[in-house]
Structures are given as C-alpha cells and as structure tokens.
Design brief:
The complex is a heterodimer. By secondary structure, chain A is an all-alpha fold. Chain A has 15 helices and four strands. In chain A, helix 1 (12-35) runs parallel beside helix 3 (74-92), helix 3 (74-92) packs antiparallel against helix 12 (333-366) and helix 7 packs antiparallel against helix 8. Chain B contains 19 helices and 19 strands. Chain B has helices at residues 2-29, 31-35, 42-49, 82-89, 100-104, 106-110, 117-126, 141-150, 181-184, 188-198, 225-235, 275-281, 285-294, 296-305, 332-339, 349-360, 396-412, 465-471, 473-484; strands at 55-57, 60-67, 75-79, 92-93, 97-98, 134-137, 156-162, 169-175, 244-245, 249-251, 258-260, 272-273, 364-366, 371-375, 381-383, 389-392, 426-433, 439-447, 454-463. The radius of gyration of chain B is 27 Å and the shape is elongated. Classes of the chains: A mainly alpha, B alpha+beta.
Chain lengths: 462, 486
C-alpha cells in the first residue's frame, strides 16, 4: 500500500463543525417554511429542531469512541439532506397534517438503528459471515409484499409495500442492503475462481458459463421484481448493483457488457410483454399530449412546470406552489425542492449526493479487505444509481419509477435503509482511514471467513 | 480492484453529469417553453393569488391586492374607484386574463421583471412573501375625477388632460365605464356571469386597445385644420398675412357635390379670410383650398409629424391604437373633405391631445407618459421615466403663430366659452358629422397660451350641435381652472 500519510487522523472535530453547519441548513430551512404561518419559532419547531440536533450529536459522540477514524463528511451530508427533506415535508403538510412529524419519528428511529450498527458492529468484516443469511433475507424481503395478509396489495400500480400495524413499509429498500452484503460476501470468496477461469474472445475475457450462475440469479431476481412487483426502478437498481459489484470483483469489463446486454434484452422483452411497462414508456415519450397528461404523466409534467417556475434561484422556501404536484413530498420531492430553491439549490443538493457517494467510494478504495471494498462500492453505487433513476425520472431524462429519493422523500423504509447504509459506510471508512488492524477476526462458528484476505495490490489487473 | 472502483465512481459521476444537464434544461434552458405550455396553469394561478404590486394615483392605490386570509388563494385584486380608473387599470382576471396597465405592466406588478431580480434574490434568502413592484401614475386624482364627472352618464365621450412640456398625462377619462372588480372576483361562477353581463352593455369594449382615449379612432373634424395651418405655413407659400379664398361652397369639376362652409356661423360674411378669421369661425373652404393647393402629401407629412398614425413612444405603456394617419389615393373632393377632418381620417383623442401639446410646446412633441415611478416592494424607485421628446412636429415660429391664432379662437371665435378670466387660453373646436344629424364634438386647447401648463382634449360622441357646444368648451374651461388653480 502506498499510503502517504504517516499518522491516521480521526478528524472528529471537522465532523463536528460540518455537523453544526448541516443542522443550521436543515433547521434553518424548517424555520423558513414556517415564517409565513407564524410558526417559525413555536414550541413544535424548537421541539423538532432539538430532537434532530440531539440525534445528530449523539451519533457524533458514538463515532468519537466507537469509530473515531470514520469519514468526517458522511454523517453531516446525511443530516443536511435529511433536515432539508424534513423541512420540505413539513412545508407541504396541509393544516393539521402529520407527515412532517411522522418523518421526524422515522428519522430518529433510523438514526438510532444506524447508531446501533456503528455501536454493535465493531468490524464490518463480521457481516461476511452472514453472506447466505443475507441472501435468504433478501428473498424473504422481496417476497413479503406478494404474500396475502402481509403484503399491502397493489398501491399505485406497484406491489412493493407490506403492512406494519397501520403503516406501510417497503422491504425492497432494505433488500438492497442485504443483497449488497450477499454479493460482497459471495464475490469476495469466489472471485479468484471467476477471475482465473474463462475464455478469451477478442480483447475481452469472458467467464465460464458455470460462473455465470450468480449473474443469472441476479438477473432473475430483477426480472421477478419487475414482473411480480411491477417495480421498474427497484429492478434496475438491483441489477445495476450486481453488475458494478461483479465488475469491481473481477475488474473485467466483459461482465458489464454481458450485464448491459441482459438489461437491454430483458427490458426489450418486458416492453413487448407487459402492458404496464409499455404504458410507462409511451407515457414518458408522449408526456405532453393532453390525453397522456390526464391518464398518467400529470405527475411528471406538473413537476417539470414547478421546476421551470423555480428557474435559476427558485421561488424561495414556502413561496412556490409545489403542492400542485401530486406526491410532492415523496416521489416528486426533488421537483418541490427545485421549484423553491431553484437550480442553484438543487445543484447543491445533487452535489451533496455526489460527495456522499464519493466518500463511500473513497472508503472502498481505502479499506484493505475485498469484502469491505465490494460492500462500500456496491452501497455507494446503489445510492448514486437510485439518485440517478429518481432525479432522471423527475426531470424526464428517463421514465419515472417509484424509487424514493434517499434521505429526502417522505417514507420510513427509505430513511431506515439509507441510514443503515450511512452506518455501514462509516464503519468501512473507519477501517479504511484508521491504523492498520492486523488482528485476525475472532473465530466464530461454521460460517467463518474463508481465509485471510489477499492484499489488493496482488490482484490488481495489469 | 481499486482501478475498477475508480471506474465505477467515474460511471456514477457520469450519471450525475446527465442529471445536472437534465436539471439545467428543465429549470433554465427549456423553462420558458414549459412556462408557456398550454397545460401549465401555474403562471396564472400563482400570480393570481400573489401579492401583486399596487397601481397608485396621488398616493392612494386604485388597484391593489388585498389579503383575504384564504389558504387556497391569499390575495384578491381590488379596485378602489373601479369605474373612474377602469380605462387605465384594466382588470386582472383568472379566466379572462389581464387588460390595461394590469396587462401592460404585468411583469413588474407580478414582480417578475428583470429590474426586480435582486429583490427576488433577497426573497430567496429572507423567505419573504414575494411582492410585485408598485406603479405610480402621473394622473392627478382631482383632475381625473373632474374629467370623469364632466362626461354625463349615458354620454359616450373621452377627455385627455396632459402637461405639454413633459408629456405627463394628468387625466384620461372615458364613459361608459365598467367595474373591473366584477371580473377580478375569485368566484369563478360570478366571474363568468359578470363578464357575460358586461359585454352586453352598449358602448363598452373591455379591450383597452379599441376603446377610450387611447384606443377609439374617431373623425377629428375641424381640429384637423390645425394640421392644414401648420402645413401651409411650413410650405412657405403662406404666411400670417395670407388671404385665403372663402367661398360659401367649393365646387368640384364634373360632380354635383359642393363642399360648404357651416351655414349657421359667420363664415358667409366674407368671400376671403385671414387665417385668424378662418380658424376663429372654423370655415371649411379656406382649408380645403390650402389642401388642394399643397397636395395630399404635404398634409399627410404634417399629420405624421403631429403623430397621427405614428408611434407614441414606450412611456405610455397602455395599449393604444395608432390609426392610419392621413388617407392615401384621394380625389379632389376626397382631399378637400379629408383636410377638414372628415371622410376617412381617424384619430384617437390622445393623438389630438398630443398634436395640441406639440403646438403648445414650441413644436416639440413629448412622449405621452402615464407611469411616474416604478417602485420595488421596499419602496425603492427602480424606474422613473424622464420626459422625452418624441419628435419635432413643427418649428417654434409656426407653433407660436398657430398659438396666437388659437388664442383668438377663444377670445373672438367660436370657443369663447373656454375662456378663463385672467388667463390666455388657446383652443380649437371641431364638429365631425356622423351622417345621421349627430356629430362628434371636439375641443382641444391649452393654457396659459404664453407659458402652457396644461392641454385639454375633449370629445363627446354622437351629440347634436347644441349639446356638443355645451359639453366641450365650457368643460374645458372647468378643467383649465382646476389645473391652473392648483
């Protein structure tokens, strides 16, 4: 390893400063949206603000003694985005509405779970032991919405929710983490085999057919999600996640070629066979025709009108009419923020995402075990891809899908999943940036690690 | 492996580059297309319920947005003296759009104009309620009220009062008028019903471009003789001492028609006339003979220099008609009739006032101005149009000569009832025959003649000769007195 820095630095004070800035952004936005209704500084505001601040600072405190070398930028970005989302959801609440408070409750729960991940998971490599449990969990999570009695049935054309008491929960959000853990565990164990065997066709080395098993599995999972849950976005997300992880594991571009070919092939067949996919694509291409507007594209078009209305500098928080857009606080929250904060504000938000996943990739580069590399890279790419699918859908770059906007959109499952990702990335970055830990993992049962990780440099492609 | 991680990062950044591009397209590059898309109701809805800037006359709003406390639509556009100012403000309606200054100054009133960019940036950071700029008019509320009251209810007519030296419009009134509150209501059912009633009222055209002082095109009658006079003096063929032929009737070769002088006046007493006499008594044949002598183009050029059929400059803001100036392809009887402001000559009351003001101002025609100041929501002046000369209508010498003759029209001629004790008033009347025994009766003039402060143009439409005489010159006197005594 060619580490330049001699002594690892915790940088916890940097994190604290950035965290205070993030809280100022989130709480300041929440104050602004209440100014007109004269509830800018009422007791609710102070109560909500202090809860958010306490949770963020508690997280920071836990990092100080549990993962003091963790990346100092990840947590502040997540808090800033979450705070902005809370403010916008609060702003869009009709009088007497409770979505804002509900989102705050979920935020606190999600942060608590994330703190627990950091607190109890002393080393991310332990997750490798759960490779196949993760696979089973993923399957369970993905099947749950389809099971009568547990599943919440078809909502808005997709079958991705389950009932938890009076609330609904989207298990697919959590499945992207369990799938990433499974892929990371499986690929880090089998990459040598996949790497060495294979046949060279032209400049590219293609894998043996029997090594294609996991790829086929992932593809089937994605198609299954598309067919049975009617969820185009998640389908894309899972498949993209797997392509990236297998590419990183093998450094072979051939996997990407095969993967993209499968996506295009699957997408083409799906568009021929399934009417809901056809409708999506037709509605996307002809969104501005009045017929399509009335029967489906209204949401996207109203969002575009809102963003156009915001223009360069935006209307100002609470000054626009994002309430004219259906699902303004969830699927379309990017359009709401674009309208009121303008191009400048939305660019800032997208840049926050960019920094967030970049820090995740940085952790992947820095950590020394291939499982951690794969997991950090997969999770970071998943967040980036999710942002692309959501924001691309809202801006009509691609067809709109039902994926949630990480940290911003109203919805508990999405918050929970993304805060768990924050916890995992923090742990991996702690390992990446900290002093080299040479102590082997404590032995643990049958699913123990399959051996000491090979140093990364040794497998790096020439 | 690290190389592949870097490549994955590049792929993710590439996706984000697409996102940045898509956002830029939606919010900036293609934003105007989206805003004008027929499916987009936002612009109207948003402006409609926002705190739009006020239109202010003499420190008091005549159109303002009132906070209704409603959650769904916070502000209601309200007109304080609706009929008095309807011709200027127009209306601001959800379904019928905007007219008048509401339309012409729409971007400023809504706060969308470029001049308000910094205010919008400020609102972004402070989270203030967006407000539009307020528009303060040059109108004098007392003169406006007086002018409006001088047109009897049921009478169709217009009055324009302005300052000839600056072009500032002090009053611009017309009847019949209407109540813009009726179509600005937030109740869509009432809005539609009221509109249906309004369009049935005879004489009301809610489009500011074709009615009222700035929009209605009328035959000017004898006030057009001022154009002939200016053209004659400018040609060099005539001077202040010229003797003009003044037959009782002007015959034309080959046709029966003869152009007469007005039978009821004093023109018949002389076969020839000086300019002073011809203007004082408003004899027709002397001016018809000037036009036949100089030719159509000389009259048309002078009409153009006075602004007939021409641009009024960009300071008026209000929608306005221009007319076609002096007609083309005229035979001799047609030229003779056109020279006395009959046949197809059509002008707006504002244009007659602009001609009068040009004479009053030594031949320099000022751009008519209706907006005095434009103020940002924090009352900072962001625009204050300066008096601007629109064109040179005639020479100072000619203007001075015409002024002298117009003064004699009031002292010795047929506009005696416009005289104000102690003040020299210059004036000219006009009676354009409509062919049904009724006339459009005009007065246009200014005072004081030696140092003009106000020019007044009055037209009463469809009146007989007695009512016309009663409603024009005597009313001009009242307006002169009101302005000069301020």
């Amino acid at each position: 390893m060619s580490q330049v820095s001699t002594m690892p630095k915790p940088r916890r004070n940097v994190e604290l400063a950035l965290l205070l800035l993030a809280l100022v952004v989130g709480i300041g936005a929440n104050m602004l949206v209440g100014v007109d209704q004269e509830k800018a500084f009422d007791s609710d505001f102070w109560f909500q603000s202090s809860l958010l601040a306490i949770a963020a600072l508690a997280f920071h405190a836990v990092l100080r003694f549990r993962a003091k070398y963790a990346d100092p930028v990840i947590l502040p970005i997540a808090v800033a985005l979450n705070g902005l989302g809370l403010a916008m959801i609060h702003r869009l609440d009709p009088p007497g509405g409770d979505t804002g408070n509900n989102q705050l409750r979920w935020t606190l729960l999600a942060m608590a779970v994330s703190i627990a991940v950091v607190f109890f998971l002393k080393d991310h490599r332990i997750l490798r032991r759960f490779t196949f449990i993760s696979l089973a969990a993923s399957a369970l999570l993905l099947i749950m919405p389809l099971v009568p009695g547990i599943g919440a049935g078809e909502i808005l054309g997709a079958q991705v929710w389950i009932k938890v008491g009076s609330m609904t929960f989207q298990p697919g959000e959590v499945a992207k983490i369990t799938l990433a853990i499974f892929f990371a565990g499986y690929l880090s164990s089998n990459r040598d085999l996949i790497l060495l065997a294979g046949r060279k066709i032209g400049p590219m080395q293609f894998p043996r057919f029997k090594d294609m098993g996991p790829m086929i599995t992932a593809w089937l999972v994605s198609i299954g999600v598309l067919v049975f849950q009617r969820d185009l976005g998640s389908s894309l997300l899972f498949f993209g996640l797997f392509i990236v992880m297998i590419y990183v594991a093998t450094s072979r571009i051939s996997w990407v070629v095969i993967g993209v070919a499968l996506i295009i092939g699957g997408g083409f067949v799906a568009a021929q066979v399934f009417s809901h996919v056809q409708q999506r694509i037709y509605g996307w291409l002809n969104a501005f025709s009045p017929d399509v507007y009335e029967n489906g594209s209204r949401q996207v078009i109203e969002g575009l009108f809102g963003m156009a209305n915001g223009g360069l500098v935006g209307t100002g928080l609470a000054q626009g009419r994002p309430d004219l857009v259906p699902f303004a606080n969830s699927d379309m929250i990017i359009a709401s923020l674009g309208e009121e904060l303008g191009l400048i504000g939305l660019f800032a938000i997208v840049l926050l995402y960019l920094m967030f996943f970049t820090r995740g990739f940085r952790a992947a580069l820095g950590t020394r075990d291939s499982f951690g590399k794969l997991l950090a890279c997969g999770l970071s790419f998943a967040v980036a891809l999710q942002c692309f699918v959501v924001i691309g859908g809202v801006t009509r770059l691609i067809p709109l899908t039902g994926l949630t906007t990480p940290f911003l959109a109203a919805g508990g499952s999405s918050l929970l999943a993304n805060w768990i990702i924050v916890g995992l990335l923090l742990m991996i970055s702690h390992a990446a940036r900290g002093p080299v830990d040479t102590t082997p993992l404590p032995p643990a049962g049958t699913a123990a690690a399959t051996g000491i990780d090979t140093p990364t440099e040794a497998v790096k492609q020439a | 492996m690290n190389q592949a991680i870097r490549h994955s990062w590049v792929a993710a950044v590439a996706m984000f580059a697409l996102i940045f591009g898509a956002i830029s397209y939606v919010q900036v590059v293609g934003a105007d297309d989206l805003k004008t898309n027929p499916l987009n109701q936002r612009a109207i809805l948003q402006n409609y319920c926002n705190d739009r800037g006020a239109i202010i006359v003499g420190g008091t709003p005549v159109a303002e947005s009132v906070d209704t406390g409603s959650e769904t639509c916070k502000f209601q556009r309200t007109y304080a003296q609706p009929e008095l100012y309807a011709g200027i403000t127009g209306y601001f309606s959800k379904n019928y759009g905007a007219t008048g200054l509401e339309q012409a100054m729409g971007a400023e009133l809504a706060g969308n104009s470029d001049q308000l960019f910094l205010d919008r940036v400020g609102q972004l950071f402070l989270g203030n309620q967006p407000k539009g700029a307020s528009v303060e008019l040059t109108i004098d509320p007392q003169i406006q009220q007086l002018a409006y009251s001088l047109i009897p209810d049921g009478q169709r007519g217009s009055i324009v009062v302005s300052n000839p030296k600056t072009g500032a419009i002090l009053a611009m009134a017309s009847k019949p008028s209407y109540n813009p509150n009726l179509v600005a209501t937030q109740d869509p059912a009432a809005e539609g019903a009221n509109m249906n009633e309004l369009v049935k009222v005879p004489g009301i055209n809610l489009n500011q471009n074709v009615s009222g002082p700035t929009g209605e095109l009328l035959a000017p009658g004898s006030v057009f003789k001022l154009v002939d006079t200016a053209a004659a003096l400018a040609s060099g063929k005539y001077n202040k001492d010229s003797v003009l032929p003044n037959p009782a009737e002007m015959p034309f070769d080959g046709i029966q028609y003869k152009l007469p002088n007005y039978a009821g006046g004093n023109c018949y007493t002389r076969d020839t006339a000086s300019f002073a006499f011809a203007l004082q008594q408003s004899c027709n044949t002397p001016f018809a003979s000037i036009a036949l002598d100089l030719g159509r183009n000389a009259i048309a050029d002078q009409a153009k220099k006075f602004g007939f059929g021409e641009d009024v400059g960009d300071q008026l803001k209000l929608g306005h008609a221009l007319g076609n100036g002096f007609p083309d392809n005229l035979d001799k009887p047609g030229l003779a009739q056109s020279a006395i402001g009959q046949k197809d000559v059509r002008v707006t009351p504002l244009q007659v006032n602009m001609m009068t003001s040009a004479i009053a101002n030594g031949g320099a025609q000022m751009a008519p101005t209706l907006v005095k100041t434009l103020r940002s929501p924090d009352l900072r002046v962001i625009d204050e149009p300066k008096p601007a000369q629109l064109r040179t209508s005639t020479t100072p010498d000619i203007a001075k000569q015409i002024t002298e003759w117009m003064t004699s029209v009031v002292t010795d001629g047929i506009a005696k009832s416009a005289a104000v004790p102690g003040v020299q008033v210059a004036g000219k009347t006009g009676t354009a025959e409509l062919g049904n025994g009724l006339n459009n009766s005009w007065f246009t003039g200014f005072a004081p003649a030696d140092n003009p402060k106000v020019s007044v143009t009055i037209v009463m439409e469809g009146v007989d000769i007695y009512a016309g005489a009663k409603l024009t010159s005597p009313n001009a006197k009242k307006i002169f007195e009101a302005v000069l005594n301020k």
